[in-house]
Write a structure and sequence with these properties.
Blueprint: H1 10-18, H2 25-35, E1 41-42, H3 44-53, H4 60-72, E2 77-82, E3 85-89, E4 95-100, E5 105-110, E6 134-137
Parallel strand pairs: 4-6
Antiparallel strand pairs: 1-3, 2-3, 4-5
Helix pairs in contact: 3-4
Length: 142
């Protein structure tokens, strides 16, 4: 299956422009993979493989750069589950995650299902931007 990269949707073009990003062919193609189909969590490697399956010619470095540009522009949220292992989340609204350690799968936890008590005072000259909670789970052997 090939991604339709010749006719990007006007909404995708507008989204990139509104975020301050030039709608290049590669950005448009990756944006369609990321955002057409609902909220999802994806690693750079997963997105690169998906792009290749859709017949897109894009390097892994370009995928990383694009994901970081989308994150900086507020289109994605990076979720770091451990050193060297990040997922990019298309749901940028406040929420938390379950991380299934055996499968590497992230599952959303709605923000209203978590109650966080008192937070420490931020260091001098800093403010708390947000709190990201990752609950690590494993399947129970039956």
């Amino acid at each position: 299956m090939r991604a339709n990269t010749s006719r990007p949707s006007a909404a995708t073009v507008d989204t990139l422009r509104e975020a301050g990003l030039r709608p290049t062919r590669q950005r448009l193609s990756l944006a369609r993979l990321l955002f057409d189909g609902g909220d999802r969590h994806v690693t750079a490697e997963q997105l690169h493989s998906e792009a290749e399956r859709h017949g897109m010619r894009v390097s892994l470095a370009t995928v990383y750069n694009t994901l970081n540009q989308f994150t900086d522009a507020g289109l994605l949220r990076e979720v770091v589950v451990e050193a060297g292992r990040s997922y990019f989340d298309t749901n940028t609204l406040g929420h938390h995650h379950f991380f299934e350690s055996e499968t590497g799968r992230l599952v959303d936890i709605p923000a209203d299902q978590v109650s966080i008590g008192a937070l420490p005072k931020a260091p001098e000259g800093a403010e708390i931007e947000r709190v990201d909670l990752i609950v690590r789970v494993r399947r129970i052997a039956r």
